Amino acid sequence: MTSSDAIWTQTYLTAGAHQIFIRRSPDVEGGVPVVHIHGFGISGSYLMPTARLLTDRGANLVPDLPGYGRSERPGHTLGIPALAHTLLDILDALGFEKVILVGNSMGAVVSLEVAHAAPERVHRLVLVSPAGGVHNQPLRRALRQLATDGVRESPKMARVAVPDYLKFGPINTLNLLSELTRFPSLERLLQVPVPSLAVIGSKDPLMPGPKRVREVGTSSPDHVTVVLIEGAAHAINFSHPGELAHVITSWLDDKEIVDDPDQPGLTRVLRLPRG
Fold first, then answer.
1. Distance of CA 60 to CAs 172, 202, 237, 243, Å?
2. CB neighbours of 193 closer than 8 A, spacing ≥ 6?
3. 200, 237 in Cβ contact below 8 A?
4. pLDDT computed for residue 274 by the predictor
5. CA nearest 184: which of 113, 88, 120, 86?
6. Are the CB atoms for 133 and 120 separated by under 8 Å?
């Protein structure tokens, strides 16, 4: 599961009313495209460590959503429903009828919106650190959680994230973070209509603890699997790409999800009591 950057192409495409910058790996015969969706305030570049490890599954796509990274900046910050609509426009522009969505943080929320709005377009859904909801309220609490997460992430993450956040701007960041705190991510996950995998880190201050996840999970459908990676914070796609790719691959192949001893972090499946 390795991929040289030499096989990736970088280009722009028109999706709806927006010019979108994308990174794409080659198609794989019989494979389902894997689309990686970034969090708020940051481009898709930090998702590449995991995307590089999944190129044998199918074409991997890592876009910058409108207003982020190298994509066109619209006249106003797009909210979560508009970003989900744009993601569907991106799939249409590429001719992807059905995909695997791998979203991190806000990208998980956008992916959830797509799965609810157009479940026939989503083969499977992977939600990595799906932020939002009561655990992040009020806004000042979410800001403290972000600050705490900043010191828990790899120092290398700052070199990727800080330029993106500065470009996105503090006002846009606050506006979108405020919307994210009001989004009922956990409740939406428990009503999701497609097979879904949620991956959370034990050191992620933006996520509820495993005990609370199990409590809410009493009403979750059987097609929702929750995995905890010990030692990971919020940006698992960047800090623990090998372990995350191993978990995703095992789940896609309907194999038992166990820890990869050769990768940092310790993976365990959270057993959700079904009510």
1. 28, 27, 14, 18
2. 115, 116, 119
3. no
4. 59
5. 113
6. no
The C-alpha atoms of residue 86 and residue 68 are separated, in whole angstroms, by 13
- The CATH code of domain 5-99+108-270 reads 3.40.50.1820
Threshold 0.90, pTM exceeds? yes
Q: Specify whether the CB–CB gap between 80 and 113 falls below 8 A.
A: yes
- Among the listed residues 269, 35, 227, the one whose alpha carbon sits nearest the alpha carbon of residue 129: 227
What pLDDT sits at residue 22? 98
pLDDT of residue 1: 47
Q: Give the residue ranges of DSSP H helices in the chain.
A: 48-51, 80-94, 106-117, 139-152, 155-168, 170-181, 185-189, 210-216, 236-239, 241-252
pLDDT of 217 reads 66
Ordered by start, the domain boundaries in the chain are 5-99+108-270
- Chunk the chain into consecutive blocks of 10 residues (it has 275) and report each block's average pLDDT, rounded to whole numbers: 77 96 97 97 96 97 96 90 97 97 97 98 97 88 91 90 89 88 86 94 87 69 89 95 96 92 83 61
What are the CA-CA distances from residue 88 to residues 26, 79, 92, 110, 175 (Å)?
20, 15, 6, 10, 23
CA dist 122 and 42 (Å) reads 24
